[in-house]
Design goal:
With 442 residues, the chain is α+β, with helices and mostly antiparallel strands. The protein contains ten helices and 18 strands. It is 38% helix and 20% strand. It starts with a strand and ends in a 6-residue tail after the last helix.
Length: 442
């Protein structure tokens, strides 16, 4: 498997960074990988100059706009998305280096400054609009999901920041689901991350802004509005009928939960009553009670009936998807954008005293980022074991990795040119160098 494409993007020097810029140079060919070298500032006694391997797909200068990044990184893979494939994009770097500006953007009116996700949504929306012309039966649109991850918890940003939990099911798949909701007639519902259907670019832009207002920020060592969580934004090509079929699966699962719980309770109750503790403390058959197998079988039969309803709903969902795919091969095509939490806590020379909570956050962030690197490297080296379970982040991203081809995905390293941020910039480039060079090592 080919490695993930890794790009580096330098942000402009800010007016409040008077110490000057990092001295740097890079080789950049049109069709060959690029390398970067940076020179340690004369005042530094700890940091040394460093040069990467030829592991970067390309390098963006400080004056390159978001639109330039979009044209080079995202546009080439959009044909794959329109073939129903999945592609993943990561922004990695310390806080204040431009991750959120690259992935999300801050200007929602100027198309040249749209973040990659918004620019991709506009592009796909225009293509889907042309496909919908003359077909009002089941229009194609974009489903958007947006959530942030903190440890084992996810917060659904398009559903009032509802708290959800990352769990691995008995089928080996990872699910992100909210708290249990008690409904009428004893039904229990556990909703996944909400999908908002958008049938126009304006709809999607509005939903995105709603979600961004609920994202958590906090003060970091270099940025007073640092993202201390990983934000995941998914764009999927959907139709109304497909989303309705998925909702039906959730409803059937909701109906199954109390029935399944009752069957389990009956089994435990009957078997418990059928045992008695003897003088030695061991459990032996209770001579005064005969296990009511008929009661157990009846509860299990009811459970099987509801399980059958779930399978029927799942089968119908597959039928709907296949039917749409016969007309529109793009259905299910997905772009996944991940704005990773800032990695600056790995720098021990900040001089800023951290609270216990900040230290704990930093340790978890570093664990997540290390796990992500190892997953990418293991895939590039075609290893039989991919360590998805190393962190909640990689557990959540497992399905997206498995549905995608790494060479169609990318990581964008956002780096600061400030001399004051030399250590953080070097650490970011080293991380990307390891990710980008993975496929060349055997």
């Amino acid at each position: 498997m080919l490695p993930l494409n890794v790009w580096a993007r330098w942000r402009p020097l800010r007016p409040n960074e008077p110490q000057g810029e990092i001295e740097r140079e890079y080789s950049q060919g049109e069709y060959s990988p690029s390398s970067i070298s940076i020179v340690a500032p004369p005042s530094s006694t700890r940091d040394r100059s460093w040069k990467s391997a030829a592991s970067f797909a390309g390098i963006f200068d400080a004056d390159d706009k978001n639109n330039t990044v979009f044209e080079k990184v995202i546009v080439p893979v959009l044909p794959h998305v329109l073939q129903g494939k999945s592609c993943n994009f990561f922004a990695y770097g310390h806080s204040g280096s431009g991750k959120s500006h690259t992935i999300i953007g801050y200007d929602y009116e100027n198309s040249d400054e749209f973040g990659l996700s918004l620019a991709a949504a506009r592009y796909l929306g225009e293509v889907l609009e042309s496909k919908n012309e003359g077909d009002d039966s089941d229009k194609l649109g974009l489903g958007i999901r947006m959530y942030e991850l903190r440890k084992n918890t996810a917060f659904d940003l398009l559903n009032g920041r509802r708290e959800c939990f990352v769990r691995q099911g008995s089928d080996g798949q990872v699910y992100i689901r909210g708290e249990t909701e008690m409904l009428e007639n004893g039904k229990v519902r556990v909703r996944p991350i909400a999908t908002k259907a958008c049938w126009s670019f304006e709809d999607l832009r509005r939903e995105l802004q709603v979600g961004l207002k609920l994202r958590t920020t906090g003060t970091s060592t270099v940025h007073d509005q640092s993202s201390r969580t990983h934000a995941v934004l998914e764009l999927e090509i959907v139709t109304k009928s497909l989303l309705e079929a998925r909702d039906a699966v959730i409803e059937r699962q909701s109906e199954l939960v109390p029935v399944g719980k009752y069957a389990t309770d009956v089994y435990i109750e009957e078997n418990y009553r059928g045992l008695i503790q003897n003088e030695e403390g061991k459990y032996v058959p209770n001579p005064d009670y005969q296990i009511d197998q008929t009661r157990i079988d009846a509860a299990e039969a009811k459970k099987a009936e509801f399980e059958s309803c779930v399978k029927e709903a799942e089968s119908y969902e597959s039928q709907v998807f296949d039917s749409i795919a016969q007309r529109h091969v793009c259905i299910g095509g997905k772009l996944v954008f991940v704005d990773l939490a800032g990695s600056e806590y790995s720098d021990q020379n900040t001089g800023m005293k951290q609270t216990p909570q900040e230290k704990q956050e930093g340790r978890q962030i570093n664990t997540d980022l290390l796990a992500l690197k190892e997953v990418i490297r293991a895939r590039a080296l075609n290893k039989t074991h991919i360590p998805f379970r190393s962190s909640p982040l990689t557990m959540v991203l497992r399905q997206h990795f498995q549905a995608s081809i790494d060479s169609h995905s990318a990581m964008i390293l956002t780096v600061s040119p400030s001399v004051e941020q030399f250590a953080a910039t070097m650490n970011t480039l080293k991380y990307g160098n390891l990710v980008g060079a993975a496929g060349g090592k055997k």
